[in-house]
């Protein structure tokens, strides 16, 4: 099934493969490899809001993981990990 969406939060949860397009194909492949903050910035330009929580704002110890929230005014994508790279799909499974 092919889905076209700007609903970023749904992509990691429902798509195995992703193609990022902005007048041309910018990146394609496994969602876990393609759906990164860097690629999203390229695809959406300055339209996205990107918030990062890390260090003492997120953890009471020396935990280096960070929370990254990227939004385009719809459902945001939430990533968590050493560089905020784990997709929301992984988060949802760990926090249920």
Q: List low-confidence stretches.
A: 87-96
Q: Helix count, per DSSP?
A: 4
Elements, N to C (H/E): HEEHHEEEH
The general outline is elongated
Distance between the termini: 28 Å
Largest sheet: 3 strands, antiparallel
Mean pLDDT: 78
Strands, total number: 5
Helix content: 10-25%
- Structural class comes to alpha+beta
Topology overview:
Layout: H1 11-14, E1 17-21, E2 25-30, H2 31-34, H3 37-44, E3 49-53, E4 66-71, E5 77-81, H4 88-94
Antiparallel strand pairs: 1-2, 3-4, 4-5
Q: If you had to describe this structure to a student in words, what would you say it looks like?
A:
This protein has 96 residues and is of the alpha+beta class. It is 24% helix and 28% strand. It has helices spanning 11-14, 31-34, 37-44, 88-94, and strands at residues 17-21, 25-30, 49-53, 66-71, 77-81. A 3-stranded antiparallel β-sheet has the order 3-4-5, with no helix packed on it. The longest helix has 8 residues, at 37-44. Residues 87-96 have low confidence and may be disordered.
